[in-house]
Amino acid sequence: MSHTKDDRATAPVQAGPGALPATREPEPGRNPGMPLDTAMFEGHAVNRSAAERRAATLGTRRSVKKQHQAAWLVNAVRLIDLTTLSGDDTEGKVRRLCAKARSPIAPRIAEGLDIADMDLTTGAVCVYPTMVPHAVDALEGSGVPVASVATGFPAGLMPLDLRLKEIEWTVAQGADEIDIVITREHVLKQDWAALHDEISQMRAACGDAHMKAILATGDLQTLRNVYSASMVAMQAGADFIKTSTGKEGVNATLPVSLVMIRALRDYGDATGYRIGFKPAGGMKQAKEALAWQILMKEELGRPWLEPDLFRFGASSMLGDIERQLEHHVTGRYAASHRHAAS
Ligand SMILES: O=C[C@H](O)COP(=O)(O)O
């Protein structure tokens, strides 16, 4: 999913006004999108209580066996988009985060788990656009992709041409992945044509950078809207669909994730394209990392336990995962401040 370092070297350094990033041959297997087809979602019923019941079984009935938990937690580390999206972000904070992404588990824990040779990294680092150059520099040679939010994150209430320019600028700085936000009003008015048009233009502006479409599900009022918006985002060419910005009142939840995953499966059945999924916002605990991985494996299978098809958007989940892994190795818990993620 990420660009290689060589790709970055050939990417345009400056996007002039209105310039689109250079696009190479279409990437094999990448979702090209399709014209809006409302028949793929209109009339689709979503049963909220069934989704809630299904979500409630995760982490209980099918919880991961104790002896396998460390392996699942190590896998979760590979899937994290290690994130900082705060008004007080600085170059220093981003560089510290990138150092953590390169080496997410303390060496003593990695040795205890016998994974010191694994070259474990997080799935990506996710930052605001002006922080992208610092992240690109700090991650050089690591293979860890740089993701950036764009399009007037988190509300997205800016003229579309400015949102598109923000994408182009951010890609020109070296971002490998762009997390866009949608206009929630289009969903609330069920103006699917406007939503499809907006996201299609964003996808074109991303060029070779992969696009994650943040639906901000906490703003969308109904699960039916969540299903429809998921389908429109994929029809408009999203590489990933993502639950939340982390700034809504309600962020990633398992029932909403289930609805999005079912949309992703239906889109895959209809088109043959595999779309990625990124729950984001409010996930802080290792047990959540387990529950979501179980959900992905049961609903979609093992390919969705790999970073090209699944990411956790989280600023503070890594600390608890590291803490649980240390407990696995030593039988003791360290103070949580020893495992702060940034
Ligand atoms: O995309 C990632 C989210 O903004 C992270 O949210 P969080 O700070 O609640 O983990």
Automatic annotation (TrEMBL):
Reactions catalysed: 2-deoxy-D-ribose 5-phosphate = D-glyceraldehyde 3-phosphate + acetaldehyde
Gene3D superfamilies for the chain: Aldolase class I
CDD domains the record matches: DeoC
Region forming the signal peptide: none
Enzyme Commission designation: 4.1.2.4
Region of interest called Disordered, as start-end residue ranges on this chain: 1-38
Pfam families membership: DeoC (PF01791)
BP-aspect Gene Ontology terms: carbohydrate catabolic process; deoxyribonucleotide catabolic process
SMART domains xref list: DeoC
Pathway terms, separated by semicolons: Carbohydrate degradation; 2-deoxy-D-ribose 1-phosphate degradation; D-glyceraldehyde 3-phosphate and acetaldehyde from 2-deoxy-alpha-D-ribose 1-phosphate: step 2/2
Record keywords: Lyase, Schiff base
Family: Belongs to the DeoC/FbaB aldolase family. DeoC type 2 subfamily.
Protein name per its UniProtKB record: Deoxyribose-phosphate aldolase
Native species: Roseivivax marinus
